[in-house]
Amino acid sequence: MEQGQKRLISHGPGETFALGVQMGKEAVPGQIFCLEGDLGVGKTVFTQGFARGLGIEQTVNSPTFTILQIYEEGRLPLYHFDVYRIGDIEEMEEIGYEDCFFGEGVSLVEWPGLIEELIPGHALWITIRKDISWGFDYREILIGEREERA
Q1: Strand order in the sheet with 139-145
Q2: CB atoms within 10 A of CB 4
Q3: pTM of the model
Q4: For residue 8, what are the contacts with CB-CB under 8 A and spacing of at least 6?
Q5: 105 near 24, Cβ under 8 Å?
Q6: 130 by DSSP, 3-state: which?
Q7: What's the Rg (C-alpha) of the chain?
Q8: Distance CA 119, CA 129 (A)
Q9: Where are the beta strands (DSSP E) in the chain?
Q10: For 31-77, what is each residue's pLDDT tens digit?
Q11: Which of 32, 92, 82, 22 is nearest to 54 (CA)?
């Protein structure tokens, strides 16, 4: 873990969701959150909590096949990207990522390593890891800027 990086432990989906709620409540326009982690670690649970923290009540799922899902009912628009299936980085330009990244809402990007060259330096990187030796629901959550990532 790098200096300046925050390390949290979640003991289950409820705690991961609650962290998302807290961060959603604190989010400000123009923020970009990059969510890293293997399949099944809780990125969607975190995102659902984050949306709830913004005041979004509708169901939030990963937009795997659409790449971008926009939620406008909260106190700030949420631009939820899942770039897992992106074929070419030019697809990001086609969907207007710059309007989201530099707009009045908050962007949350799953699988950001696939488009890392497009991510502004001020983005906050959240890495969720699991270690089943500590238990099935145990998660280590690392939060920091790009250069602080492990």
Answers
A1: 6-10, 139-145, 124-130, 32-36, 106-110, 78-82, 68-71
A2: 10
A3: 0.89
A4: 19, 140, 141, 142, 143
A5: no
A6: strand
A7: 14
A8: 21
A9: 6-10, 32-36, 68-71, 78-82, 106-110, 124-130, 139-145
A10: 999 999 988 888 999 999 999 999 999 988 876 678 899 999 999 99
A11: 22
